Amino acid sequence: MRVKNNNKMNICIRAAIYSFVLLFPLIGKSQQKLPTHKNFDKGLQKETRTTLGVPGAKYWQNTASYDINAEIIPGEKKLIGTESIHYQNNSPDSLKQLVFHIFQNLYKKGTIRDDVVHPDDVHNGVVIKELKINNQITPYRIEGTQLVADMKQPIASSSSVTIKVAWSFSIPSKSNIRMGAKDETSFFLGQWFPKVAVYDDLNGWDRNIHSGGQEFYYDLGNYNYTVTAPKGYLVWGTGMLQNPNEVLAKSIYKKYQKAKKRDAVVSIVTQNDYRSGKPITRNNKWIFEANHVSDVAFGVSDHFLWDGTSLKGVTEKDIYIEAVYPVASKDFIEVAELAKKSIHYFSTELPYPFPFPTMTLFNGTNGTSGMEYPMIANDPSADNRGRTVDVTAHEIAHNYFPFYVLTNETEQAWMDEAFAAMMPYKYQQKTEPTLNRLTRYARSMSKYANTDRNVASMVNSTMLRGGTSYFNLYMKPAVGLYVLQDILGEELFKKCLAAYIETWRGKHPTPLDFFYHVNQTSQQNLNWFWKPWFFENASPDLGIEKLEKITKDSYQITIKKTGELPVPLDLTVIYKDQTTQNIHYSAAVWKENDSKTIIVKTTKQIQKIVLGNDYIPDTNSKDNYWKN
Fold first, then answer.
1. Backbone phi, then psi, for 546, in 5-degree steps?
2. φ, ψ for residue 28 (rounded to 5)?
3. Which of 49, 470, 538, 572 is deepest in the core (most CB within 10 A)?
4. How far apart, in Å, are the Cα atoms of 533 and each of 407, 493, 525, 527, 620?
5. Are 142 and 105 contacting, i.e. CB atoms less than 8 angstroms apart?
6. Would you tell me how many other CB atoms lie within 10 Å of the CB of residue 605?
7. Statement: residue 354 has pLDDT above 70
8. Do residues 455 and 472 touch, judged by C-beta distance below 8 A?
9. In angstroms, rounded to a whole number, what is the distance separating the alpha carbons of residues 425 and 346?
10. pLDDT tens for residues 454-509?
11. Distances (CA, A) of 216 to 126, 211, 362, 575
């Protein structure tokens, strides 16, 4: 997406960095020294991947575009749908089968799950009423949360097929696993339609069965979907509403149009609108369009409040933002404005313009965790402002990862979760400093990094559960990105991040693609950093080894790196007169040595030395203090 003049320079910078990566690769064999795996090596041989951090000359990606019609029946807690899918095989392979995700089989009797499901939500699975490929009824088999259709006629390379599916399922009402009922007449629908699985250059078909703990991996496509809801129900979803003048009552439509033009938040639907008894809606068929996205989701309600506003001047077109919530969710009164501030921050400070035309924050869960989808998030209500600011910014950040840069959430969840945790931290601290993810994560690392909870973040995410999953997919890699920013400096880190986004937008990078890309863009061999932070279960531990007065006006302080994980060295020297001196080195200080000698020139008497700060994890803080 092009941006207005105030951001054109950023686009030029990103293009220049991308060219620099291609033209001036690092010299030598250092790029080959990161641990790899056989599938990535096959990608190198096939020329779909490189060690420069950019797609190979023969990189390809399949696409699936959807036309969907769905009806939601609140009284029965049921969704009925039909879809037509255009699937394009851009791979060099002839596909002998098609694999679909039918995620709602998570609630099917007998399914293996990571999460507890309320007995009332267990059902007989997604009902497939019809499956046709190129107008031919096609046999299939169900394997957990996947449907597999063997092709009578394989899908040749560079050819396409048309798929038609009719299905239905029961909407969970008492289990808050990303989607379901908020109350008797309010629902959030995610993972709601049969979806062609990814077939990629490294793994072929994605055959991961969804067990609830992991998230998702999707290809790009264009979506046109119609949701039929009962009279009086409102619908909000991924993409742009195509027929607002047909579905909204005139008074509501007028306020909706006002919100799309105003900087200030407009109350589109209020409690008084419901109390008035006047119609809120007219037609009950809501039509949405979303192009070049990986997924769509939507929410419905007959009593939720609706706020809207627009962000102007950071992209070529205004970004429309809305918050949707019940009266009881008092914190959501501020969410539309918080969302606008978050998107402004990402677009101007990251800097990379927000890649989509709209964003909806929907309070459709009774749980404590939010769930991201392109252009819409299903967010919880919170009883403290810090949590509201945090979850709003975090879920919006996911629009960059994994919905613009299409990382594999299922197998490498840190590639989106760590970025979404680290990217907004400055905005969050400025807006509401009572909750700081990075300092909280650093404290957790100090507590758990020296335990068996700490494994390599590169371990396939499907193998991780519970606290081990959260530690290695959120906490440790988010702190690692903060440490990387300290090594590179904020400006170079931003350039690396923006160049990575620009290079891999709409594509499927692996961790190695990211590591190689940062190495090339920064023109630094950072393998010494990548290995302990992402490939090992290293722990952080620095300590004050000794303090010596070497002359009448100088001291020598020796800091020892006992742990294997390189972290910043931050030293606060407190003098007897209560003045202080801060000494800081990035984690690069440990690139060659495990000991650092610091000379402090002063005629003052040192009273106390403190090693570390709230952003730096340390498993043994007992040797972080010296007192005279």
1. -165, 160
2. 100, -175
3. 49
4. 19, 17, 15, 10, 18
5. yes
6. 11
7. yes
8. yes
9. 11
10. 999 999 999 999 999 999 999 999 999 999 999 999 999 999 999 999 999 999 99
11. 18, 11, 20, 54
